[in-house]
């Protein structure tokens, strides 16, 4: 007796539909799974056997062979349990269905879920990504665990049926009890993650303005300053001034978070990610690891902020892995199974002390005890190529007592965000007008190439003169020249100015290395 | 006597003698007393594979001398000297600086790059101080060195980071000669960040000087030895910035023992940064409050040419002045410590645009500088070029 069902597995950030073929034949009782299963899939045998028995069905004492097709990709995860169990039940004719119904189940339906020995259904990670994969394959119906229902519904247009146990699920398939449809989460139920607000940061006018520029133009930033100056606090407030996510962005970030198992239970990601990995992070943790790599911090920061506190303490290889993603917005990970490309376009914020002891710029009552050599080797831990990708350096100084005591008048993040949004709108219009495109995405000022920058920047004669002078007198390299122009362009956009004038250039120069 | 220009065999042997590892100037001088010329010493040792028994040095130095001479690769040395344009001068040469002959344990062999005329300039003043210096010390070094250069004084220093570098830079800004005495071979730049400064010193009639042959790496132990040359070359030593236990105090001590004058400037008495300066003052060093005190003391007149240039440059300065915003910024900045952008924005109350613009313009006029920690300090030398 033969039966066929469909399951789905994660393959990087994408999902692949897997056909589960079950053949039950006479012979010595055995249960074999073929078709490149990983350990987790192979262990499904025991779960399926126990779950079928405990759901009140008879487990056939025959020779059972399961084939997972296509046979050349590795199948990982526990989500195939349900598809295997249903296949066994169909093949052993424990579920009496006519041929048309069987055909329909085999072609247009996907079963996703992990089984407990008792026969209960449990959710799996990556449900949203799986649902999106199912949608692309024109599947019409999904059967899954209640845990995954809402998440899957967000990515899947058709029916998502949830059942709490194998027994209920069989009853639903047979039409003995009504099917329970999953519903997407309603807007109101999102508990918005509490973000720190810029109005809570006292003083730091210059640093705040600089972060506003970074948010508007997507510039990468290095924050320096003595311990306790407020670098971390400023960085944490950064997401609050970034523009809200579009629906498309929400879905693409949620897919990543779903695969990583980090999606909030209420529904899609509503706020831009802010990732701040500890400096002990490994290369695999940063870039993504595993034989089918799980997204790393770089990918988890997509469309958001990656904050590296104490940047020189990160291991050299971890810092160097940032280079290509910063340039391309994508990280390519090659494994024996194939090459996986994960999106990772983020604003990089790095924070560091000026020297190992932290007091090189002389906080009140502190003197630096580091030798020049120590300072040099500390600063050198950030390699030249990495610093080349940093557009702005902001020095954060400790606020004075007066600044701490100052009441009111600090701008809220909402106000700053308005300006950032309108500056981005100007950039969008310009990049559409000048036909700069990367797919259908808008290029931010920080992403413009040298040629595009020259087209986008109309510099006044006066400003041109200052730039020429600065180029000679202030030791500015050609690369930093471009960076200064990019930042100046964003400053002009924030000011709503068409041309880049002398004051914009002067301000941009103050953020140079 | 031989002219110290072309690399004859005599010169090469002299250079080789100066580059022997583990051999100091005392051994060389004793050996030369015994043998006469470097060439005779060299040839005799090469032939006998031993030194004369009458040589008055310890056994270990004798064996080091023989070993060194036999192991020396003259071809490589010759190549290095030519490649890096290093020249050599010996104690008996005419070109050897007179002042240095007077000191205890003078170097027998000196390597140099640049213009030998700086040696013959009788007006030589050393400036020494901390490597990790304050903006105040930095300003003093630059302004004083530039002003001394006007009197045709060659500023001698150690080519290290901090005060040394600023003293050399100041002398260059004042269009004067400057001599950097290094603690390593002249084929290297130590610290490497000063490579450009050293190049500029050579280009501007200055001199790089070292007791060590090509290929010798800088070592902590070499620096006090180098200091005896710095003080030995000069009429006086200005200690710009010295902590309570500073290498500059060793230089001052050597200067004092050799009969050189020790000058020092006062600093902040509440911090440790200038404790060495104040200790020297207590011990009787000459209190220096303006650069002209130094030439006045030795009756060195301002060169006529230079003097005229000074008055004309002042006339020229009449047109250079600061805008209102720039003056506001200068008033809130200090030549002693860094002021952050944040504080400047608070105190000057200038609009963001005006603040950045004026800061940039001051920076381009070289009146202020943005330090590594992104604070701003006044550069007195730059500011003095303007009327305000």
CATH-level-2 architecture of the domain at 114-313 in chain B: 3-Layer(aba) Sandwich
Total number of beta strands of chain A:
19
CA radius of gyration of chain B is: 24 Å
The residue ranges of chain B in which pLDDT falls below 50 over 5 or more consecutive positions are 306-318
| Cα end-to-end separation of chain B | 56 Å
Strand content of chain B: 5-15%
The first-level CATH class of the largest domain in chain A is given as Alpha Beta
The largest sheet of chain A, given as strand count, sense and whether it forms a barrel, is:
5 strands, parallel
| Tally of individual helices of chain A | 22
- Indicate the multimeric state: heterodimer
Largest interface: A-B, 33 and 29 residues
CATH topology of the largest domain in chain A: Rossmann fold
Terminal Cα separation of chain A, in Å?
A: 72 Å
Count of alpha/pi helices of chain B? 19
Number of strands of chain B: 12
Largest sheet: number of strands, sense, barrel closure of chain B: 9 strands, mixed
Query: What number of structural domains do the residues of chain A give?
Result: 2
- Structural class given helices, strands, pairing of chain B? alpha/beta
Low-confidence stretches of chain A: none
């Amino acid at each position: 007796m033969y039966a066929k069902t469909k399951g789905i597995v994660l393959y990087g950030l994408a999902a692949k539909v897997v056909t589960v073929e079950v053949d039950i034949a006479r012979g010595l009782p055995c249960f074999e799974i073929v078709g490149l299963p990983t350990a987790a899939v192979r262990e499904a045998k025991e779960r399926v056997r126990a779950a079928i028995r405990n759901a009140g069905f008879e487990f056939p004492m025959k020779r059972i062979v399961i084939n997972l097709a296509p046979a050349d990709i590795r199948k990982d995860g526990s989500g195939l349990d349900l598809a295997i169990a249903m296949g066994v039940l169909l093949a052993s004719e424990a579920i009496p269905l006519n041929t048309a119904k069987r055909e329909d189940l085999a072609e247009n339906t996907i079963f996703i879920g992990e089984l407990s020995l008792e026969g209960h259904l449990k959710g799996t990670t990556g449900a949203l990504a799986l649902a999106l994969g199912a949608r692309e394959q024109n599947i019409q119906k999904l059967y899954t665990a209640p845990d995954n229902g809402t998440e899957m519904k967000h990515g899947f247009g058709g029916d998502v049926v949830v059942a709490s146990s194998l027994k209920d699920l069989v009853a639903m398939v047979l039409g003995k009890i009504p099917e329970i449809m999953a519903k997407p989460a309603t807007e109101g139920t999102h508990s918005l993650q509490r973000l720190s607000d810029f109005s809570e940061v006292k003083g730091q006018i210059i640093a705040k303005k600089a972060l506003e520029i970074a948010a508007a133009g997507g510039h990468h930033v290095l924050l320096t300053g003595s311990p306790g100056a407020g670098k971390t606090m400023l960085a944490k407030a950064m997401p609050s001034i970034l523009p809200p996510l579009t629906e498309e962005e929400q879905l693409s970030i949620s897919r990543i978070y779903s695969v990583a198992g980090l999606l909030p239970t209420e529904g899609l990601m509503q706020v831009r990610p802010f990732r701040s990995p500890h400096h002990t992070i490994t290369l695999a943790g940063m870039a993504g690891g595993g034989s089918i790599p799980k997204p790393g911090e770089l990918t988890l920061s997509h469309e958001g902020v990656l904050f590296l506190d104490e940047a020189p303490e990160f291991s050299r290889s971890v810092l160097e892995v940032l280079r290509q993603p910063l340039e391309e917005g994508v990280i390519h990970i090659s494994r024996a199974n194939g090459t996986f490309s994960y999106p990772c376009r983020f604003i990089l914020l790095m924070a560091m002390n000026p020297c190992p002891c932290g007091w090189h710029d002389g906080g009140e009552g502190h003197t630096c005890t580091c030798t020049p050599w120590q300072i040099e080797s500390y600063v050198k831990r950030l390699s030249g190529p990495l610093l080349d990708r940093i557009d702005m350096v902001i020095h954060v100084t400790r606020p004075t007592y007066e600044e701490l005591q100052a009441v009111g008048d600090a701008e809220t993040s909402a106000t700053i965000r308005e300006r950032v949004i309108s500056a981005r709108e100007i950039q969008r219009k310009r990049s559409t007008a000048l036909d700069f495109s990367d797919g259908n995405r808008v290029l931010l000022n920080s992403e413009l190439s040298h040629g595009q920058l020259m087209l986008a920047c109309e510099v006044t004669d006066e400003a041109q003169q200052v730039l020429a002078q600065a180029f000679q007198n202030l030791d500015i390299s050609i690369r930093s020249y471009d960076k200064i122009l990019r930042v100046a362009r964003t400053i002009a956009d924030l000011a709503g100015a068409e041309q880049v004038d002398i004051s914009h250039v002067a301000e941009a120069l103050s953020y140079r290395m | 006597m031989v002219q110290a220009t072309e690399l004859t065999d005599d010169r090469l042997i002299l250079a080789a003698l100066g580059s022997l590892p583990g051999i100091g100037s005392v051994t060389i001088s004793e050996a030369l007393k015994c043998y006469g010329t470097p060439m005779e010493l060299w040839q005799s040792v090469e032939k006998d594979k031993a030194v004369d028994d009458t040589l008055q040095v310890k056994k270990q130095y004798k064996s080091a001398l023989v070993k060194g001479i036999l192991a020396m690769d003259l071809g490589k040395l010759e190549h290095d000297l030519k490649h890096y344009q290093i020249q050599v001068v010996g104690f008996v040469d005419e070109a050897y600086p007179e002042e240095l002959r007077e000191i205890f344990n003078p170097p027998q062999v000196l390597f140099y790059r640049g213009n030998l005329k700086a040696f013959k300039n009788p007006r030589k003043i050393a400036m020494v101080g901390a490597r990790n210096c304050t903006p105040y010390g930095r300003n003093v070094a630059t302004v004083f060195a530039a002003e001394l250069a006007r009197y045709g004084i060659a500023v001698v220093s150690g080519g290290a980071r901090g005060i040394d570098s600023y003293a050399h830079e100041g002398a260059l800004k004042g269009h004067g000669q400057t001599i950097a005495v290094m603690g390593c071979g002249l084929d290297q730049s130590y610290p490497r960040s000063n490579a450009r400064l050293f190049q500029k010193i050579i280009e501007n009639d200055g001199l790089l000087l070292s007791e060590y042959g090509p290929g010798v790496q800088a070592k902590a132990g070499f620096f006090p030895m180098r200091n005896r040359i710095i003080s030995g070359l000069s009429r006086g030593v200005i200690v710009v910035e010295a902590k309570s236990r500073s290498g500059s105090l060793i230089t001052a001590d050597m200067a004092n023992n050799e009969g050189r004058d020790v000058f020092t400037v006062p600093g902040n008495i509440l911090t440790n940064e200038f404790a060495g300066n104040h200790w020297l003052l207590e011990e009787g060093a000459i209190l220096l409050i303006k650069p002209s005190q130094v030439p006045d003391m030795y009756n060195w007149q301002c060169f006529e040419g230079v003097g005229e240039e000074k008055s004309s440059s002042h006339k020229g300065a009449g047109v250079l002045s600061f805008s209102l915003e720039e003056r506001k910024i200068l008033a809130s900045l200090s030549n002693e410590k860094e002021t952050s952008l944040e504080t400047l924005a608070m105190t000057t109350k200038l609009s963001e645009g005006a603040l950045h613009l004026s800061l940039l313009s001051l920076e381009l006029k070289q009146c202020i500088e943005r330090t590594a920690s992104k604070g701003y300090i006044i550069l007195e030398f730059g500011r003095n070029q303007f009327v305000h």
